[in-house]
Amino acid sequence: MQLVNLLFYCSFGVVVLLMFIGAQRRSDKVARSKYWPISLGLITLASFTFVLAGLTPIVFLSIANVSMIFSGIAVVLFIRSWDVKNQELKLQYFWIIFFVCIVVYEFLRVYFSFSFRVYLITSVVGAISLLGLVETMLVSGGDKRFQFNVLKVAFILQFILLLVRAFNINVGTSIASVYQEEVLSATLRFMAMGSTLIIFISINNILFENLVGLERKKSIDAELKMLSSLNALAMARDNETGAHIVRTQEYVRCLANRIRNQGDYVAELSDDVIDNIHKAAPLHDVGKVGIPDGILYKQGSLTKEEWGVMKTHTLIGENVLASAKSQLPDKLGMDVIDVAIEIAGAHHEQWDGGGYPRGLKGNQIPLSARIMALADMYDALISERVYKSGWEHEEAVNEILSKRGTHFDPVVVEAFAAERDRFQIIAQRHRDLMGEEKPFVDSIETFDHKLRRSEEKFEFLFEHSPIGMAMVDFLTGDFVEVNTSLLNSTQYTKEEFLKLSFWDITPPEYQPQEEQQLEDLKTKGSFGPNRKEYIRKDGTRFPILIRGFIITDVDSRQLVWGIIEDLSERLQ
User: Fold this and answer.
1) Where are the alpha helices (DSSP H) in 327-392?
2) What's domain 238-452's architecture?
3) CB distance 308 to 367 below 8 Å
4) Whether 455 contacts 550, CB under 8 Å
5) Which residues cross the membrane (predicted)?
6) What is the model's pTM?
7) Are 352 and 360 in contact (CB under 8 A)?
């Protein structure tokens, strides 16, 4: 039986030692409490000192038993730390009590019987198990995760095994250590230790799930920052109003829900997909950022050549969003940015193949783009603009119904027909604000007015973007504009920053990359995303992800619009 005990404690010790090493190497903040590695370290110490106790019980048996008890206490303290409202026991008190208990237990080992010590240890560890169960129930609250249930069951199982083991010990037995126990008692002890391993594995799995959740949150935060910046980009260059954005979002959600409810495209329209279509809708015309102002804001009809340029906004938008996606952490499945790419690139395609840019037809057109196409046309028809009066609701409805099977997917038109009243309610609820369009209808809006209004929107959104943005003169390399986010990262004031060129904040070893970026701008009109570093005012460096593209201002000056994401937090 002694050999079995030695093998058990050695193998158990190796397993928890590996877990201890893993806990020590954790760099995330999920397991920030020191009591998690302490609990693993103590149970590892207990396992190997139980092996040494087989050679001589003096001191080693006391260290082993006290380490086992305090490992359980550390587990409970660690679980308590999951609730930030709980105050953590100071480590010095923990270790003082630990060493005092070793001395006390050595006294008990010498002067008290084995059965008494077993009852004592069993009682204490059993109480710790119940306390661990209670703390787990308190901190988990309404969390229904499987691993929390496993942890609760493990504590209950450990308590039951300890109870059975206590009843199996004969009072007044002559044995002096666990190495002299009978097979049944030893088996119960092994099983109780095994339940401890289940507890450790469950906690480790909970920590892993929390870490995955934390990474998911960071990923979502990064995506939200990116979407916020892209929305700013779209709104700054769009002719439409803020109310138009809200209306089209409501239209697409309404259509998607109706399509699913009428039994069509059910598999393609999950709740998450519908939510993504709703979030992506404002980005449908983000590609207009690449259209020259003279075309985008032209009064009157466009020439054939100008219309050809205007049509490229779909491909530009698709490319801008695809580049933005590459800056985000990898994720599984479709996400908002993927849906936005579909919509931007295909919302001007037509069911019969007569649309642009690729002439897609039927189900070749992504469903999200088919939905967006109808919503966008309805809003364009009913909206009052400087160059036209808004149509009546019924006129717009009849126009869309007439394009069933030509411009629009018949299924989407069927859903629209069923929700026509809802569309009218949305349009009335989110009418264009008087300050957005009406004054310019009464007195014809000039080209200068349009530019000024666009510039005002752009300046506000540019300044408040959570991702760094800057504009650089393409010919000189001098900065001409920068937002607060990038200033915070570089630690410069705006006045200081605008005196710099991008060479001043770029380390010299990135010169080949910079030269390639300039070449890409000349040949493609854009570059990136690329990873590099910027130099702060104090001389330290920080990692960034940068992409840029050329725009033309009202003075026909070529500027490079740079989107610069500070990666410092993401790479921690």
Assistant:
1) 336-346, 367-382
2) Orthogonal Bundle (1.10)
3) no
4) no
5) 6-23, 35-53, 59-79, 91-112, 118-138, 150-168, 188-208
6) 0.49
7) no
